[in-house]
Design goal:
Radius of gyration: 19 Å
Strand order of the largest sheet: 1-2
Number of helices: 7
Helix content: 55-70%
Shape: globular
Number of strands: 2
């Protein structure tokens, strides 16, 4: 699946099955983004209890809940392990392939470290959402690396974006980590209630950590330059933008003093 205007920026796909995987990935992530806007949230963080319980007989509709720390470790650890194992399964390749394996592995390793040592938690996570998110991240990590492995030996794109991608990736990693720390600092002495985030780019958007996470995936797609990588980035970006939209709406409804000038995820624009 190569769009003519992007021919100079992407590898050819090595097989029809890779093309099918790319299309399926794009469709599934687009669905998740639109589902968020329509109110069918993945149930973690402040949306962990978003499904309504109308009676005592259907309480199970909300699903089994596990601790946030455990759930988030399940989010990221399989993808991290997939990236780590890839160094042993695919030891060869060029510098671009090494950068891709490192970028994918380090991103999920960083998220595990944040789960263990940075984040503070106020509730649980619905198990169904944990399984869905974990499966998505695992398939994405494994897919990005495996598909790129299959492109080894194919002609390189005429426009090389890997070094630009590395810079964007580093900016994304640092910005995402910084704003996760700001979120953690909001809660003192085991507090659990939500507060309006402040500091950094929280003064302009409600989800700057999402903006920098989008940058991380943009960086990864520029490093890889496979259609699957661009599809993952596009779909993940749409999901995070949708999630930021409903997050801003949640804060505006919960806090009467929520500043109206604060956007969702893109300063001054959206």
């Amino acid at each position: 699946m190569k769009i003519p205007i992007l021919e100079n920026y992407m590898f050819d796909e090595p097989s029809i099955w890779v093309t099918v995987t790319t299309i399926a990935t794009l469709i599934s992530t687009l669905y998740l983004g639109f589902a968020e806007i329509m109110g069918n949230h993945l149930q973690y963080s402040k949306f962990a209890n978003s499904k309504k319980k109308t009676s005592t007989t259907n309480k199970q509709e909300a699903g089994v809940k596990i601790s946030s720390r455990t759930g988030m470790l399940i989010f990221y650890t399989p993808a991290f392990l997939a990236g780590l194992v890839s160094f042993f399964l695919f030891p060869g390749g060029d510098f671009r392939f090494f950068l891709l394996k490192f970028a994918v592995t380090f991103h999920f390793f960083k998220r595990d470290l944040e789960v263990l040592f940075v984040h503070k938690y106020s509730g649980g996570i619905i198990l169904g959402s944990v399984i869905l998110i974990s499966g998505f991240y695992l398939s994405m990590a494994a897919g990005l690396i495996t598909v790129h492995y299959l492109t080894l030996g194919l002609p390189e794109p005429s426009v090389d974006l890997k070094y630009i991608g590395l810079i964007i990736y580093i900016v994304g990693i640092l910005g995402n980590f910084y704003h996760h720390n700001l979120l953690s600092d909001l809660r003192k002495n085991n507090e659990k209630e939500y507060k309006i985030p402040q500091g950094g780019l929280f003064n302009l958007v409600i989800c700057p950590h999402y903006m920098f996470e989008i940058a991380i995936f943009v960086g990864i797609s520029f490093i890889s330059q496979t259609p699957l990588a661009f599809a993952c980035t596009f779909g993940d970006s749409l999901y995070l933008i949708s999630r930021s939209y409903v997050t801003r709406k949640w804060y505006a409804n919960k806090f009467e003093d929520f500043p109206k000038h604060i956007k969702c995820v893109i300063p001054y624009l959206f």
